## 1
Amino acid sequence: MKLNATQLKEIEENGYVILPDCFSNEEVNNLRKAMTTIFKEKTEANIIEKSSGVVRTAMGLHLRSKIFDDLTRHPKFFEPACQIRGHNLYIQQTKINVKAAFTGEVWQWHYDFATHFGEDGVPKPLALNLHVFFDKVTEFNGPLFFIPKSHKYGSAPSKLDTVTTNYPLWVVDQQNVKTLVKENGIVSAHGKAGTVVIFVDNLVHGSAQNMSPMDRAIFSVILNPCDNAQTKFARPEYKHGRDFKPIKASSYKSLLI
Ligand SMILES: O=C(O)CCC(=O)C(=O)O
């Protein structure tokens, strides 16, 4: 799947692009079945919500399951990522962020590079975060909020938050968010299951708690240029992949079995 000139421009200008109808219902249903199995595993790579104890984030999925490994290398992620960042990309991270009905908790305002730099010593904000919705995402069930163009302001000062949720996150302070939103507004990323969203490493984003009765699961793969790999190794492999060889596109047959 190749991005057209308008979509490439959207990423450059706004820092994100939303691509509806990328994966079929059959593919998403198979992925959801695999997700249920993954959530039952007792592993520290399944991080639970602070209050409800349900899975918040299941990580390291390409290391844990064939179908998620194939999804990670799927041409619908891989080809657009190559168009934007070139062909030498490694898998930095894979996860499903769940946000369960009624209980899914907040992701504070942040941009991914603050964590990639702060925790892993990634030199430059070149990683791409590529999502696929496993549920219909609406304004009600905790969609991601983006501040368009915020990636153009460089890296806003960030502070490590280990208190709000069970997932440590480098977050942007409210005064900076206020300024960025005043100048650029906020958009929410919604669409049907099977929608793909791509966004850049410096884009400020977050999401509110899910108080709706609808679950909201989103798969995420972060691909990073091989020559921009991590230089610090404090986090486990399920949070930052250690195989820095360039990936190839998968045959992705397992998505349809
Ligand atoms: O899943 C969400 O709502 C937010 C996830 C996120 O911001 C991230 O993975 O960087």
## 2
Amino acid sequence: MLAAAQRTRHYEQYRWDVRHTAISNAADCLKRIEPVSLIDYLKHAERFRDNKAWSFSWSRFHHSIPGVSRTAILSPHFLPGLHSRVFSNPWDPALARYEPEMIAGPIDTLRCFAEAVRRGATWIPPLRHSVIAFTGILEGPLRADDRELLWQAFGVPVYEQFFGFGGDLLAAECDAHAGLHLSRDAGYLERLPSGEILVTFLDNPHFPVLRLESGMLAEWHEAPCECGSVEPRLVNLRRKAASRVRESVLAASM
Ligand SMILES: [Zn+2]
């Protein structure tokens, strides 16, 4: 919040308030900041940019499902780990040789790959664990037909990881398939009475956006989950109005 107020044009009006707020009152101070619509952010991104911020270009993959020894990450924007390798695309012959137990990647990439696998145009050894689909504010949450396609193509459970505008993981589906647990390091999420989710980015140094109207609706569950986690969950995450968000993205790109 301090970085946003001190280093971006949009939030300079809140500079005094933020500077004189104790950390214990940060949540109250945040509530006084006017939410930003997705279209305003996309059309005027320069007002939200911190030009002095430095950040690492790659993201670290979060294994939200434990017990996997070989994960293939189908995105060049992630760092490989001890139990994972990165492939720039799923048509790399090295992918089949790696014999992954799990594949993870952006939903658009997984959708194309799954369609190719299903019609026999490409092949990988059978997965033994799961598929993790990366979704996000612009891509929208995982659709039921995508879940079905991935299940038909790979025959293993499908999990969703929901990102902000980069590698900032905001929420991840757990082993119990009981919603998406919030990731407190990446974002501070609020739920309006309308059900819309506001996102304050904590791990996006270039664009420290506060209270972004995400265009997503969800129910908010705080009860302990069957998986053992006590982190709150977003359940039934969905677009507020798919056509309006698409129009916003198109208008912002013109
Ligand atoms: Zn859970």
## 3
Amino acid sequence: MQRVALVNETDWEGWRKATRSLILAGVAPEDVRWSVSSDGEDRHPLPEGHGSFGVSRSLVALASLAIQARDASRFDLLYRLVWRANAGEGVLQKTDDETVRQVQRLAFAVRAETHRMRTMLRYLPVPEKDRTRYLGWYEPAHYVLEANAQLIARQFSGLTFSILTPDGGAHWDNAELRFSAGVARRTVPDDEALLSWWRAHHERLLRHARIGTAIPEAEQLDEVPRPPDRAPVGPVVLPLRPDGPLHEAMQEASDCRRCALYGPATQTVFGEGPAHASVLFVGEQPGDQEDVIGRPFVGPAGQIMDRAMEEAGIDRRTVYITNAVKHFKFEPRGKRRIHKTPEAPEIQACRFWLDVELIRLRPKLVVAMGGTAARALLGRAVTVTRERGRPIELPDGQTAFVTVHPSFLLRVPDEDATAREYRAFVADLRTVAGLVD
Ligand code: SF4
């Protein structure tokens, strides 16, 4: 029995070399036992084979995806396919073949998880000496971290990021992609714990990180030279680019399924305004009319906001307006849809899109209107009356400003109080205008 121990779960290079030796030495699949041993134990010399062989590009592409599946049988299944392909069988044409179907199922699951990881990942900005690092956490269903990190590094080439998962960490510093050990979920149960864990451990983690090699989109298994780092990894959907146009993000958000709110709502209501706006206003969520029309702040609260902005000397056409949550949350009551306040997990899920807007616009000032927007922005529960009306420094260097949500003015019971609250809102907006002058 020939034993092969790969150095990690996505050791493409190790699997490729072992496959080549074993095939050339004529070792049948049933005589090979595959395992993963990161500490070098269980390592056995490979047989020496002579000659060369090649398999089709599509089989290599399929293998480079399937090897990322969290399935212990994948190395063996892939070796079986290569063994048969080397014997002259057109294996990929055999769509009824059980091994082919198993490998295709694995490749499909990996591709889906690759895409899911990119759409689900959200980043916490962590200020460093001369830059901001974007820190992400994700628990992948398959071993897609390395391939995804290569793609994300290409797309986010101007940024610095670290993605932590239980399987490992990926760190991009705008020059080199490095991989480190994983972090258990219980160690970083929420954003706050993740940030403090990162602050305490990142130096040691980065010191021991290894430079990554790519899972390649190879041509011929036998002839492929060692691929350069960050080589393409196959047919996967590209991630959002933080510096890409906003309409690209808007399009992706229209299919968002990150929380359950997309279900009953009519559509995603993304932010709107010029891409170079220096002020970004954040409300809570679209209301009944916004949900139907598909634009933020066009209902009664939007009308009050327009009037107050005009009085404060702010031209709505020059600012960007969005919501912390992009789908309308409501409770049906007869023919009416009654607004419901989004809950923390929904705010947290939708923070992804707010981050995309913040990263792409990089506004001078972010105005949170109401408790939900303030919570989304500051990452904690906020008492609006306590924190309104003054600039608040955000961890990534941006400045926030908290005020009431204009819909609050619609709910004030008596006329005098409404007039007073309206004047206070206009005063806040004047302060906003002064802060970005
Ligand atoms: S509310 Fe936000 S996170 Fe939830 S589905 Fe809609 S866009 Fe996605």
## 4
Amino acid sequence: MQAFLGDEYAAFETAFQQPRVNSLRLNLQKLEPPELMQHFPNLDPVPWCETGFYVPFEARAGSHVLHALGAYYVQEASAMAVAQILEPVPGERVLDLCAAPGGKSTHLASLMHGQGLLVSNEIVPSRARILAENLERLGLPGVIMNEDPARLATAWGSYFDRILIDAPCSGEGMFRKNPDAMLEWSEASVLTCANRQTEILKSAAQLLKPGGTMVYSTCTFSSEENENVIERFLEDYKEFELIDIFDEQNATDWGFDRGRDRDGFTARLWAHKLRGEGHFIAKLRKISGEDTSTELGFEAFAQPFKAKLERKSWLEFQKDYGVPNGNFAVFRGEVQLIAQQTPPLETLKVVRAGVPMAEVKLGRLEPHHALSHWFPRDMPDVPVLDLELDDPRVQTFLRGETIHAEGAAGWVIVRVLGLGLAWGKRVGSTIKNHYPKHLRDSRINFED
Ligand SMILES: C[S@@+](CC[C@H](N)C(=O)[O-])C[C@H]1O[C@@H](n2cnc3c(N)ncnc32)[C@H](O)[C@@H]1O
């Protein structure tokens, strides 16, 4: 780093002695900035992300009820630049190839306003489940896959308008935030990462439409994993060109540095130059190439309610629980809301084909947890139990215990500030708790 940074090295080293900054990205579907400020008065905006705010550590944003309600995602500030630079347009087909735990996928989904298709892939099964939970908590749509990118490329061809490759890396940019990452670092691991990144980029190149754009990012400093990976990729894939990030964005004003690629079109984010951790971002365009895209998968794969379920009982469910119309299909015992442009999924490892709405249990339909977070705020026509933020029953419910409230028997969404937390089932004045067991108590801060 001394050789790389020259005179700046001292400032770089000093930054490691400074405390890291904490930040969150607001989910506008759930909460507006003035309301957030009522709960967290000392917020500073993140300059490069409209919905990003620095929040003091003492505020413990990751364990606040608003976190459990999906009002925000605790995300490292520099990481917020990435989805912003990919700039997905509502209606497009977008792929996030290395997506867990879901900071950038939830950001992409928010920018897409629920229109088009987001496919979020994660190769490690346990991490893919956390990814699904995070999208679910924020009430955002997306297909969740658990695949090797090479298998996706073989199955789908050039299906996507935009692709994000937030590559697994040696994590040097996270050493301040997560000192344990230093123990895993070695020169050999940098080179292993570089080879893996090159492999993932190869698959991304196949999955991108001619004319499409992709963003490659890492949270490491080493040129071996950043500029060198991109330079090698451009040599091998002549149909790609780099886009000047500084031409499209106010990146200089934000304190981003130009990367050391041939033209300085990539971006470097340094902890000694801005309020955030280290990051590298490159944006590429596929200027030509053959369209190898597969056919749409939805028609073939969605066979709603033929075998196991009568359409009639689903229509009743829709009416009883205020579920708006859409494309629904039964997938692994769940009725899921499927995006129209969903590609074929048959031969692949799917975590979620769409948004689960209901579970089919012994031929009957029960509301799925995801549905309690899916509804917009203060949704009418849904059976609810509204609790104030300071009602002691909120904490009782989060621990997984039953609570008490008079009202009609049956399923209700337990809401706080008009936002769904989970389903409860009322018998008499007792509300049985259906907050999923693995989410109880923990309310872990799944930041990236
Ligand atoms: C930097 S993290 C992604 C963080 C995520 N984009 C976010 O914003 O929350 C990289 C992810 O790539 C996954 N990964 C590891 N090897 C991979 C491979 N060969 N192909 C695709 N993903 C891989 C890791 O498990 C890890 O979850």
